Amino acid sequence: MGGIIGLQGTQDAAQMIHVGLLTLQHRGQESSGIAVEKEDGDFFNYHMSDGLVMGKYTPAILETLKGTSAIGHVRYPTTGIKSGLTDAQPFLFKCAHGSIAIALSGNIVNTEALRAKLAKEGSIFQHSSETELIVHLIAREKLPIENALKKALNKIEGGYGGIMLFKGKLIAFRDPYGIRPLVLGKIGKNFMVASETSAIEVLGGKYIRDVEPAEILVIEKGKLSSGFFTQPKKENNCIFEQVYFSRPDSIVRGFSVAEARMSMGRKLAQQMKDIKADIVMPVPDSGFFAALGFAKESGIPFEMGLVRNHYMGRSFIKSTQHMREVVAKLKLFPIGGIVKGKNIILIDDSIVRGTTAKKMINMLKEHGVKNIHFAVTSPPIIAPCFYGINTPSKSELIYCNMSHEQIVKEIGVTSLHLITIKNAADACGGISGCQGFCSACFTDKYPTKISKSTREAR
After folding, report:
1. DSSP 300
2. pTM for the full model?
3. What fold, for 2-233?
4. What's the mean pLDDT when you consider all of the chain?
5. Is 278 exposed, middle or buried (0-12, 13-18, 19+ CB in 10 A)?
6. pLDDT surpasses 50 at 207
7. How far apart are the first and last CA of the chain?
8. What positions does the entry give for [4Fe-4S] cluster binding (predicted)?
9. Which of 78, 79, 27, 74 is nearest to 53 (CA)?
10. 400 is in an annotated binding site
11. Which of residues 320 and 419 earns the better pLDDT score?
């Protein structure tokens, strides 16, 4: 999982990719990388770094990344969890076709079977990431690169958005279900692609459209061509993008993320119309817009009773449970003067493992909160995601291991309210309930086949 951005046709390509990665930092904090195609198209200037993007790409480093075509990636690990630079992307390869730089956001669910088959046939893998599989599959084809990529993508299953640099071409592709996001934009006469519209707009670019499910875009010398590697499937966009993962200033499926979250808050207020409270307050920052929507719908005053330490990472996004617990202790601080003696409605985007919730509730009680009604803008998460969100096993999901009543007691709230699947989908622009969205984490029903071994490996 992570975030990707690519562009072509500008002399300051590396600097622009750097800004784009800063914008996409919320999508991955494990590592990052920028690859710029050399003018002769023979190979790439590149730089990889672990941790946050900020401060790792100095002016001196960016000066070495010469070229007009570039791609970048920020990563947080989901499969083959492994910290460090070994799996930092973009990956760089040389094969019979030529030099390839590639980056992927998402997961391939038939990795194990494909890796075993390719290894048996002589392939040697350098990385634990499934992104490398695509290059091995391309390398086996004697077709032109676009056709080789089409054949490769027809052999993989999962949810992903990907970008490649190859001999003066910027190539972008998206999974047949449209699970993971990928958008097309333009800066002046130059095309670009990114995981989110915010990364395009921060650079002064204009969002044009979403890359379609199963679509391959080829950008070369300012011209855009489009094709499909297979028939697009019934659309299954990840609803967690709007619930949690995407920036609030991004557009997903043509809908503002901020407005979708406000709508979720309004629908929660309708579900909780009999609950009385003194104030509505968000868990910052991702609960902000939902709490604002709740307050407007309910008429209960909005207050900021928690302050977030923005120098801490997201507790959900950390690779290990220990690190999630450390971050949860440090990231949020109650404001006693606002919360003391109050009956509050506390709005958060999700309850996954319960790591943050329990400690946060305890802190609020220590600062004199009277009653806490906890409202969540995602339905109960009962199944792991195999498409790029790091919820690897049911053993880690609180709703798989406790009843609703037990969770209320465990995290220490007066009441707990979760949005319904229908209300969440409606708020995000769904049609006929959850049509158009992947809701596997709420239903345990997946749009692609998930093998028994893949399930057990999680």
Report:
1. P
2. 0.92
3. Glutamine Phosphoribosylpyrophosphate, subunit 1, domain 1 (3.60.20)
4. 91
5. middle
6. yes
7. 16
8. 238, 385, 438, 441
9. 74
10. no
11. 419
40 is in an annotated binding site: no
Domain positions in the chain are: 2-233, 241-457
The tokens for 384 are 């792991």
Structure tokens at 73: 């990636």
Helix axes 257-271, 288-298, angle to 10 degrees: 50
Confirm or deny that 95 is annotated as ligand binding: no
pLDDT tens for each residue of 2-12: 999 999 999 99
Residue 434 annotated as lining a ligand binding site: no
* Cβ-contact 79, 130 below 8 angstroms: yes
Which residues make beta-bridge pairs with 75?
A: 2, 31
Which CATH number among 3.40.50.2020, 1.25.40.180, 3.40.50.970, 3.40.50.300 corresponds to the domain 241-457? 3.40.50.2020
For 176-185, what is each residue's pLDDT tens digit?
Answer: 999 999 999 9
pLDDT for residue 433 is more than 70: no
Q: What's the pLDDT tens digit per position in 46-63?
A: 999 999 999 999 999 999
348 is in an annotated binding site: yes
Helix (H) or strand (E) holding 350: none
Q: Is 94 left (phi over 0), alpha (psi -120 to 50) or beta?
A: beta
The response to whether 238 counts as a known ligand-binding position is yes
pLDDT at 81 over 80: no
286 assigned binding-site residue: yes
